[in-house]
Amino acid sequence: MKACVFCAGLRGEVELSRVFEDDEVLAFLDHKPVFPGHVLLIPKRHIVTLDELAPEEVPGLFEKLKVISRAVPLAAGGQGCFVANNNVISQSVPHLHWHAVPRTKGDGLKGFFWPRHPYANAEAQEAMRARLEDVILQELVLDFWFGPGQGPSSELYVKRWFGQDAEFDSVIRRRFGQAVGTAVQGGLTSWEATPRGRLALILLLDQFTRNLGRHTAAAFAGDERAQRLAREMVEQQVDRTLTADQRVFAYLPFEHGESAEWQQLSLKMYEQLAQQVGGKYQSYLPYAQKHAVIIERFGRYPHRNQALGRESTSEEKAFLEGPDSTFW
Question: Quick one: CA torsion of 109, 112, 117, 122, rounded to 10 degrees?
């Protein structure tokens, strides 16, 4: 029996057009796209039709499909996305797969898959592949941290933000550890070009580092870059395009800064957030004020001293023995 072209492709040509991959799924550019940016998503396990999916496979697969359907128009400059799946009839490859096609009003699409618009050349295809790879990972980071949609994050997500949970840290390491390492080393510069990409990068540098490097110097390895990115967002007023929950984390790099300048900016931004949005977002200002008082007193965060190899003063040692002295 001839091998499934998608299964064989996991080790061949499909790999060259990959835009996302994890243990469960592979997403790659359609080699005959309806429009540039047309992506195929497949489960790695060989399944012919949708009905063969095991119940436990559905959440993970559809999480990626949801993110890809959002990422495709973002990356390709579309206004929306057409998502399609064929079972048996017109299923050109006997392996379950979804098409995610970028759409714009008046794009001339006739029927579902005609006419096709090939890439102008290999360079154009690679540029689209790289752009999609970036945007898909950015959207996965944002969904993982804030949840779906553009409204306030649910309590499920909020509870995870400032807690200490080894299992949650392990999930971040498995899903995003490589991206965190790349960001800390100065990579993912293309993410800086859009507000959502920049916010996702700040999360990698300022939040995920703290989950993965808890109680070590690695927790602070991304701070300097995160602070620069966050300040540029504020200076360009890009932060105003974000949701209130997203703004909380766009400003946290300032609160984490060990200088009076960073603390002044932190207080300014959380005061604005409290005034403009109100409600629960007023509660972030007292935390910012508490951080600012510590920096005003010591010029640094004493709870970082041991991790960073700094000698604590007698006053800092006394402070660390009291309540509310650490922010791990």
Answer: 150
Structure tokens at 297: 């007193």
Confidence of residue 1 (pLDDT cuts 50, 70, 90): very low
- pTM for the full model? 0.88
What is the residue extent of each domain of the chain?
Answer: 5-109+117-128, 150-320
- Contact between 35 and 76 under an 8 Å Cβ cutoff? The reply is yes
- The whole-angstrom separation of Cα 150 and Cα 130 is 25
End-to-end CA distance of the chain: 57
Amino acid 231 reads: R
**Paired tokens of 117:** 């618009």
Report the CATH number of the 150-320 domain: 1.25.40.10
Closest CA to 255 of 236, 237, 276, 273: 273
5-109+117-128 fold: HIT family, subunit A (3.30.428)
Q: 227 CB contacts (<8 Å, ≥6 apart)?
A: 253, 254, 256, 257, 262
